[in-house]
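Title: Prediction job returns without error message
Component: structure pipeline
Severity: low
Priority: P3
Assignee: unassigned

Description:
Job completed but the reporter wants confirmation the result is attached to the right record. Sequence as submitted:
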Amino acid sequence: MTQPVKIRIRNQEYLLQGDDREERILRLAQYVNEKLKEVEENTEGLSEKKAAILAALNIASDYFQLIEKRDELLSDIRERTRALIQTIDSTMSWVEQGGVRSSRPKSKPKSLAETEMSIQERGLQHIRKL
C-alpha cells in the first residue's frame, strides 16, 4: 500500500490509502467532484445525500456505457480475428494442395467471404512470385 493521499470532495477532506498512484486517486476525486457539480447545477434544492446518490448513479451509468462499448469492441475483434484465421487457414490449405486456382472470374468483392477470397488470391499471387 502507498502513503495516504489527501483529497477533497465538495468541501470535505478525506485521506485515502490504496494501491493506486497518487495522481490516479486525485483524478478520481476530481471526477467525482465534477459529477457532483453537474448534479448540483442541474437540480435545485437537493440535500447533499441526494446529490451524492445522483452523482453516484451518473458515474455508474458512465461505467456501464464503457463496459458495453468495450464488449462491442471485443466482439468485433473476435469476429475479425475469426475471419482472418479462416482466411489464413484457407490460404494454407490452398498452398498445401498445390495451389489449384479457382475458376471464378475476378470481380469486385461484394461480401466478407468474397473479400476474403480476393485477399487470398492476391496473397497467393505474391507467394507464387517468390
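Comment from assignee: result matches the submitted record. Strands lie at 5-9, 12-16.
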